Structures are given as C-alpha cells and as structure tokens.
Amino acid sequence: MVAQAQRKKLFGRGRTIHGNVVMNFMGRPETEFGIYGVAFWRAGRTLANSLAEHRGYHDFDACPIVFLYGHSLELYMKAIVRRGRSLVSLAGKKLPLEPRALNRHELVPLLEPVHFIFKHVGWTWKTEVDEVKTFRQFKARVRELDRLGTAFRYPVDTKGQSLVSKHSVFNVLEFARQLEGAIRLLDGAVTGLEEEWDQQASAAYERQQASKRRKEKKRITPGSLVID
After folding, report:
1. How is residue 122 annotated by DSSP?
2. For 103, which DSSP code?
C-alpha cells in the first residue's frame, strides 16, 4: 500500500529502480551548489548540441538553453563565493560581498567576490575562448546576461514590457560556446577551492592543537600540580 501511494505522488518512487533519484544524499545541501551547477550545465549543453545537429529548429528553443547555462553560471559563482568566503575568513580577511547577494539571482554582485577569491588563492583567469579569455571580458558577458537573461524565462518583465527589441537576433550556439569556456574554468575552480579548503582547514586545526599543547605544557611544570 505504501509503494502504491508513493507512485501516486508527483515526487514518489517509481515502479522500477530505473528513474529513481536520491536528493540531498549527504545531508549537507549547502555544499551542493557546484553539483547543481554541473547538472544544469550538462542539460544546457545537451540542448545546444541537439539544436546544432538539426537544420530545423524553433526560435524559442533558445530559451531553455539560455536559462540552463545562465543558472549553471549562477550556481558555480555562488559555490565559489560560499567556499571562498570560508577560506578568506580562515586567513583573517573579509570577503567583499553585498548583503543578500547569495540570496538573489543577479550575477553582477558576485563578480567582485569571485575575483577577490581568485586573487586570494593566487589564481589567474584564463580560458581558451576569446570572448571570455580575461576576467574583464567575462565581466562584460555577465553584465549582458544579467540585463537580458530574464527575457528567456518570461516574454515580459514585471511591468509587462519586453526586455528585447522587436526582431532581435542572436546566435544561441555562439552564446553556448562562450559560456562553455567560462563554466569550464569555474568548474575547475570549485574543485580547486575544495582541495584548498581541506588543506588550509587541516593546517589551521594542527596549529590550534599545537597551541593548546604548548599552553598545557606551560601550565604543568615538573613537581607541580595545577588545579583549575
């Protein structure tokens, strides 16, 4: 009866194992921004590749492609900021981050923190894609996406106005190619930051324990007993 009730739910188990997915597997969803980013990236790439392989397509087929790549970019940038903030704090510094920047969908407020984190760990921004080869170029693409990205989720803004002019034309495959270059770099950065965090956190813990041992050694001298 329980299994039958589960199948009636929109988010219930299936009749067979195939197709079942496990969400929040580790019980630490705050660490899964990068994983979510990968999922949306793969989906966007799949749709872009499908469009590239077919001579015929609908103009509005671009909408989910732009949304998926844009949302993937947002998730990756937030993953970098969230982990990078801990690293920066461990070094006794403060990350320049606008209030509630991690709770909004705009990407521009995440640019400065991402750049700060890259410099903090000694990385340089470099991709093989000309349009996003430098961080300055990436910043320009992000500003474009923030300005027009909503037009691919809704036909009008909250005031009922179109976000793009009539007969606007762009190449969605070029769009995907450019963001592929940026997302590949961010994907590597997420992995690198996790490794950096493991090393730095372990080193900080060892320093803390060594400091405790030194203090204990000073408190207890040969032939004496210290009682708190």
Report:
1. T
2. G
The C-alpha atoms of residue 103 and residue 201 are separated, in whole angstroms, by 26
Residue (of 114, 105, 98, 106) closest to 182 by Cα position? 114
Number of domains in the chain: 1
Q: What is the CA radius of gyration of the chain?
A: 24
Enter the DSSP assignment of 27. Answer: S
Range of the structural domain that residue 144 is part of: 28-161+170-193
DSSP state, 165?
A: -
Beta strands in 91-195 (DSSP E): none
pTM for the whole structure? 0.87
Query: Reduced to 3 states, what is the DSSP secondary structure of residue 108?
Result: helix
User: Could you tell me how far CA 58 lies from the centroid of its own chain?
Assistant: 30
pLDDT of residue 228: 46
Q: Which amino acid type is present at position 16? A: T
Residue 93 lies in a domain: yes
CB atoms within 10 A of CB 82: 17
Mean pLDDT per 10-residue interval, the chain, length 228 residues: 66 92 91 96 98 95 97 98 94 94 96 97 93 96 94 92 92 97 96 92 81 75 52
12 located within any domain: no
Q: Are 107 and 144 in contact (CB under 8 A)?
A: no
Residues 176, 124, 143: CA angle, nearest 5 degrees:
45
